[in-house]
Amino acid sequence: MRHFGHLDDDVRQRLFHREPEHFTRGADPAVLATALGATLYSPATRPRLLEDVRRQAARGVVSMVLCLEDAIDDRDVPAGEANLVAQLRALADAAEHGGPADGTPHHGGPADATPEDDGDWPLLFIRVRTPEQIGDLTRRLGPALRVLSGFVLPKFTEDSGAAFLEALAAAEAASGHRLLAMPVLESPELAHLETRRDVLTGVARVLEKYRDRVLAVRLGVTDLCSAYGLRRSPDLTAYDVALVASVIGDVVNVLGRADGTGFTVTGPVWEYFPVHERMFKPQLRRSPFLQQTDPPGEAVRRRIIEHDLDGLIREIELDRANGLLGKTCIHPSHVPAVHALSVVTHEEFSDAADILHEDRSGGGVLRSAYTNKMNEVKPHRAWAQRVMLRASAFGVAREDVTFAELLSACLCS
Fold this sequence. Notes:
Elements: H1 9-15, E1 16-18, H2 29-35, E2 38-43, H3 49-58, E3 63-67, H4 77-96, E4 123-127, H5 131-141, E5 150-153, H6 158-175, E6 180-185, H7 188-191, H8 193-209, E7 218-219, H9 221-226, H10 242-255, E8 267-270, H11 297-306, H12 309-321, E9 327-329, H13 335-340, H14 346-359, E10 365-367, E11 374-376, H15 381-394, E12 396-397, H16 403-411
Parallel strand pairs: 2-3, 2-9, 3-4, 4-5, 5-6, 6-7, 8-9
Antiparallel strand pairs: 1-12, 10-11
Helix pairs in contact: 5-6, 6-8, 8-10, 14-15
């Protein structure tokens, strides 16, 4: 699979200086963590879940979470589990026999691709409620477990997390199939100032013990806000809510370090998608869209604003500035914005390449090829390495291509 693979070849060639690289489900976790992009959540109770998964994959979704936790009513858990097992078994059966279970054309990759390596579905994760569910679902899925990449672990703390990760390790040993974990940090104790330090250091301890199984750490900002009865409006980003911003900063401080001890930390969910009456002016500048003619740039900008995506775009930019990569999404309309803004700009790529080249020569300071900044080799080395990982996953835009053109191509595909 690869990002922007749903676009026509000529469109990708027009947009990218360096196209996104292919990767497989069995790739190194560092590659997969970078490539997660917009992780789309879907309730496990949806009756046409398999069809939904395939449709979103065809639209460019690379990772999905099938949720048995907050997305469904407590009373619906047994039905959700049964539906999930049946749908994943159908997916595995279709993959084994070389075609989709719903009869649609197969576009998953080469004819000899195995279910573990390729296929016309995204990286799939199940969000469970309890550690016991991991073992139970593993047994019920049987050989169909191979279509799954792992589990999302809710309300993760040191105490609860150890039980979840032990269950995951046992399921992996019993099945012989690699299973990755994405813990969600969302407990009230993380929001509370007096307990936050202990919670984070405890989480760091348990994650380090199971480092090889941890793909990424996710932030449950909605639950954090609920501890104080807060909810941000679509005109505000998570970083405009002081409580949330302080939690994000501390999580990255402890768990997002670039010294080899850190993990990929993903951005918080953007809750809004309907049209509503705006209180503030749109946050999206006109200038990036002025030169665009196909489709007309102002029409694209208007569509983005009407669907509340300008606030999302602002938040994605702040996510990256604060050390977060990828984002939890609850609506397909959010995916193009996350992926378009994950593409490495030509300027970023040029700076990163220069820094890593000079780093091999012993360091120093050099002027950017764009002549607009200083690149200090040793301090910027970790940043440059991360840029190159993102370039592999999402590609490098051509010098004259802006995020507006990338977003337009995704919206119109």
